[in-house]
Amino acid sequence: MSAGRLRFVAARLVQVLPVLTALLLIVVLLQQLMPGDPARVMAGPRATVEQVAQVRRDLGLDQPIFLQFWAYLTNLAEGDLGRSNRTGIPISAIVGDRAGATLWLMAGGLIVSTALAAPAALLMALRPRSVAARICARSLTILVNCPPFWIGLMLASVLALRTGWLPVGGFGETFGERLRSMVLPSLTIGLAAMPLLARSAAGSLRQVLAADHVTTARSLGITGWPLVRRHLLRNAMPPAVTLLSVQAAALLFGAVVVEQTFGLPGLGAELVSAAGQRDFPVVQALTLIFGCGIILINLLADLSVALLDPRTTWR
């Protein structure tokens, strides 16, 4: 990697630090902002005032916010995310058990949305007046207004309950079982994310088609796939990658709904359960994980756009 690219990557990493610091501060303040007293929840409804005060001291909630922030950073540096109020199980163990389902769902959703959006965008950009392109555009308009949980219920009704081909819920044990159990959730989250991605990619392709270098290439007789590969994709990819990163971040929150719909044991379902039972340490940890995931996705997208954009200068 050249010195210019190294400086570019280093600059982007430095820009991430204030955002990460703000996220950590919000996570620490989250315990103060959530309704209910975490010390009372941990001590139990029958605990005396003295017992609640002791729990508050043990949790460090009686300390100034900057000391709580420092203690939280110290624990994170040691790999300690805390323990669940409900079960006493280390949160790192909970994350390890449930992260797999969420990662499967994210990967499946991105694959489905990209695989469906790419041909739709090419069709609407290259053949905008065709009957197929018009049908595709109207279908996307309908699909973008459908909430993910409704899409999931319709897919489950048509592809699972009536045919028995696919499981309606659960995660499975073997690789094959998990692959089958992820088909409906991945289709659900992919179909929900696909319309905006297809429209954005189609708009980028139309702009590139109107560019002078594409007109020149066409005048030289370059058409079909060589034109798309050499002159369209490279220039249309940066905006699509940017929107794909936004969609990937949205998928993290969409995973909460989809996991609940299909009964997947993922991080989103655990977050909902922990919030409902006032399990503050788990809510804190999962909020931090989701936030870091969004920061990482945006960072990777920023670097990818810089690499794909032919106008980038590495100085």
UniProtKB/TrEMBL annotation:
Predominant cellular place of this UniProt entry's protein: membrane
Which Gene Ontology cellular component annotation is one that this UniProt entry carries? plasma membrane
Q: Ranges for the ABC transmembrane type-1 domain?
A: 99-301
Top-level taxon? Bacteria
Q: Which family does it belong to?
A: Belongs to the binding-protein-dependent transport system permease family.
Membrane topology designation: Multi-pass membrane protein
**Keyword list, A-Z:** Cell membrane, Membrane, Transmembrane, Transmembrane helix, Transport
- Name-wise, this protein is ABC transmembrane type-1 domain-containing protein
| Xref: Pfam families | BPD_transp_1, BPD_transp_1_N
**Keyword set includes Cell membrane:** yes
What transmembrane ranges does the database entry give? 12-34, 103-126, 138-161, 181-198, 240-262, 282-308
Question: Where does it reside?
Answer: Cell membrane
Q: Which GO biological process categories is it annotated with?
A: transmembrane transport
